[in-house]
C-alpha cells in the first residue's frame, strides 16, 4: 500500500508496536485495530507517520480522509478524531459531511477560479470597445476601474473581448470615400460587369507611384469581428500626397509590363503629355486596334492639354471613378516592385533608381520589363 503523503507532515513518530495496538484496541475497539494494522507496514518502513496539525489551506490526502471516515464509523466523535489526528474540528466535520452527502471522500470537480468581472461589467467592456474601435485594452481597464471601482488588468480585458469574438487586428488602409465616390464606384461596377475577357485583355493599365528609400507606415490595431475588415470604424483612412523618394510612371496589360519612366521634380500636364507620347503610345500599340487606355482622374490626366492630345492620337480612354486605386491591378505590380526593392536593401537614391530600372528579380513575359 502506498505511503500517506500528508501524514508525513505530522510532527512526532508514532510507534506501531504491540503496546500501541493494544491501547487502540482497548480505547477504540477492534474495527480501528484492523485499519491501523493494514497501514502499519508502510508506516513502519517509511517512519514518516508524524502527528501534527495539517498546514492551513492544503488539501488532505485521500488516505487521511478515509481514516477520518473509518474512525467516525467506529463511533468516535469529531473532537476525538480531531485531537487524535491533530486536525481542526471543522476539517473533520467537513470531511465527514462531504462523505455523508456524496458517499465519497473525493472532492467534486471544480470549474476553476470564479470570473472577476460580472456579466454587467462584461457588457460595459463590449460597449466601450464597439463604441471606440481604437481604444486600447489598458484604456478600457482604466475606464472599467473608474466606473466600478474594481481594479482590472489589461490582459483580463483582452480575454473578455476574445470571448465575445473581438480581436486586436491591424486596421486596413483604404482611401477616404465620400458618398459621391461610393456611388461612382457602384456605377463603374455596373457598367463593366458585362465586359468579357477579350475586352480586359486589351486594357493598358497605368499609374504613378512613389518608391520610398526608408521609412515605415506604422501599425494601428482595432477591435473587430470576422468579416468587419472594411467597416468604416475598422479601417484606417489614407489620403494622397504622402512623402517619397522617387516617383515613376509605368503601365501593364494582360500581355505583360510596358514602359517605365522616372519623373523628376513636380509633374504637370505638359510633362505627362511627354510621357504619353514617349512611353504610353509604344506600349498601347502592342495591344492592337482594340486597345483601351486607363488612367485615373488626376488633374494632370484630365487637363485640357492631356484630353486634346489623347483625342488627337485617337486613344480610347476608359471611364474611371475617383478615389479607386484598389480597382487598378497595377497596384499589385507596384507592391511586388517595392517588395523587391526592399529586399535589395539599397542605401541611397542612386542605388534605388538602378534597382528599379533593372527590374531586379522581376521576370514577366512576353514583354520585356521596362
Automatic annotation (TrEMBL):
Domain Transposase Tc1-like: 122-191
Record-annotated Tc1-like transposase DDE domain positions: 203-352
Stored InterPro entries: Homeodomain-like_sf, HTH_SB, RNaseH_sf, Tc1-like_DDE_dom, Transpos_IS630-like, Transposase_5, Transposase_Tc1-like, WH-like_DNA-bd_sf
GO molecular function: DNA binding
One example of a Gene Ontology biological process annotation: DNA transposition
Positions of the Sleeping Beauty transposase HTH domain: 57-106
PANTHER family found in the cross-reference section: SI:DKEY-77F5.3, TRANSPOSABLE ELEMENT-RELATED
Name this polypeptide is given: Tc1-like transposase DDE domain-containing protein
Provenance organism: Oncorhynchus mykiss (Rainbow trout)
Amino acid at each position: 500500500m502506498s505511503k500517506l503523503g500528508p501524514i508525513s507532515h505530522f510532527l512526532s513518530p508514532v510507534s506501531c508496536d504491540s503496546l500501541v495496538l493494544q491501547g487502540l484496541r482497548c480505547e477504540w475497539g477492534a474495527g480501528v485495530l484492523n485499519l491501523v494494522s493494514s497501514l502499519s507496514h508502510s508506516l513502519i518502513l517509511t517512519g514518516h507517520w508524524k502527528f501534527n496539525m495539517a498546514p492551513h489551506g492544503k488539501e488532505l490526502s485521500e488516505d487521511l480522509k478515509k481514516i477520518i471516515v473509518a474512525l467516525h464509523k467506529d463511533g468516535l466523535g469529531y473532537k476525538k478524531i480531531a485531537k487524535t489526528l491533530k486536525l481542526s474540528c471543522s476539517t473533520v466535520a467537513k470531511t465527514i459531511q462531504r462523505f455523508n452527502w456524496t458517499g465519497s471522500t473525493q472532492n467534486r470537480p471544480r470549474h476553476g477560479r470564479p470570473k472577476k468581472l460580472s456579466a454587467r461589467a462584461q457588457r460595459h467592456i463590449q460597449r466601450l470597445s464597439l463604441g471606440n474601435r481604437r481604444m486600447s485594452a489598458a484604456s478600457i481597464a482604466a475606464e472599467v476601474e473608474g466606473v466600478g471601482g474594481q481594479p482590472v488588468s489589461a490582459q483580463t480585458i483582452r480575454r473578455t473581448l476574445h470571448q465575445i469574438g473581438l480581436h486586436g487586428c491591424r486596421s486596413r488602409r483604404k482611401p477616404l470615400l465620400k458618398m459621391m465616390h461610393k456611388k461612382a464606384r457602384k456605377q463603374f461596377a455596373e457598367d463593366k460587369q458585362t465586359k468579357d475577357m477579350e475586352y480586359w485583355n486589351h486594357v493598358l493599365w497605368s499609374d504613378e507611384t512613389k518608391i520610398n528609400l526608408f521609412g515605415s507606415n506604422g501599425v494601428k490595431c482595432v477591435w473587430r469581428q470576422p468579416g468587419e475588415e472594411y467597416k468604416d470604424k475598422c479601417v484606417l483612412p489614407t489620403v494622397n500626397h504622402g512623402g517619397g523618394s522617387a516617383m515613376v510612371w509605368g503601365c501593364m496589360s494582360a500581355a505583360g509590363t510596358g514602359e517605365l519612366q522616372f519623373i523628376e521634380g513636380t509633374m504637370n500636364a505638359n510633362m505627362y503629355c511627354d510621357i504619353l507620347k514617349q512611353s504610353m503610345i509604344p506600349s498601347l500599340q502592342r495591344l492592337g486596334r482594340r486597345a483601351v487606355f486607363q488612367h485615373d482622374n488626376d488633374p494632370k490626366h484630365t487637363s485640357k492639354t492631356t484630353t486634346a492630345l489623347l483625342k488627337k492620337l485617337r486613344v480610347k480612354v476608359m471611364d474611371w471613378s475617383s478615389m479607386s486605386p484598389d480597382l487598378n491591378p497595377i497596384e499589385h505590380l507596384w507592391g511586388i516592385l517595392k517588395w523587391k526593392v526592399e529586399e535589395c536593401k539599397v542605401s541611397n537614391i542612386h542605388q534605388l533608381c538602378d534597382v528599379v530600372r533593372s527590374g531586379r528579380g522581376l521576370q514577366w513575359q512576353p514583354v520585356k520589363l521596362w
